């Protein structure tokens, strides 16, 4: 297969493996094998470094996705399918930042929690709104975080 799609593109900052898998899927039949074949290591949520990494991954992942949609334009994929997958990708990243915000809030890191909330909203307000409707308890950290930040900025508080 490598002969037909080439090697992984090392110009990508992240996601070169995903881009490669998408290129394979454009040229070959792929399927699901119900046997674990890849070892994946997940890093801790809500570290500044991991948050910054995910912020960059949003753009590199979107770019890889849309580049491969363009490469596969001859397949005439339904626009609904393409948009559903794009929304799904955004939902994954928005979900990460909502989890990160909750972890930051639990650690008393209100500014980092707010930054994560803003990033989640920026990536997909639709998914944040959906989370608020479907699982309001998962966003219970938001009002208290905002209140703490407002109180901390108020003049004369604590004097």
List descriptors.
about 160 residues, mainly alpha, 7 helices, elongated
Task: Provide an overview of this structure.
The chain is mainly alpha-helical. It has one domain. 66% of the residues lie in helices and 0% in strands. The chain contains seven helices and no strands. Helix 3 (48-71) runs parallel beside helix 5 (110-123) and helix 5 crosses helix 7. The longest helix has 28 residues, at 79-106. It is elongated, with a radius of gyration of 20 Å. The relative contact order is 0.10.
Task: Please provide the ordered H/E string of secondary-structure elements.
Answer: HHHHHHH
Q: Distance between the terminal alpha carbons, to the nearest Å?
A: 69 Å
- Residue windows where pLDDT falls under 50 for at least 5 positions: none
Mean pLDDT: 85
How many domains comprise the coordinates? 1
Helical stretch count? 7
Which class best fits the helix and strand makeup? mainly alpha
Radius of gyration over alpha carbons? 20 Å
Form type: elongated
Question: Can you lay out the helices and strands and say which pair or pack?
Answer:
Layout: H1 2-5, H2 16-27, H3 48-71, H4 79-106, H5 110-123, H6 125-134, H7 141-153
Sum this structure up briefly.
The protein has 159 residues and is mostly helical. The protein is built from seven helices and no strands.
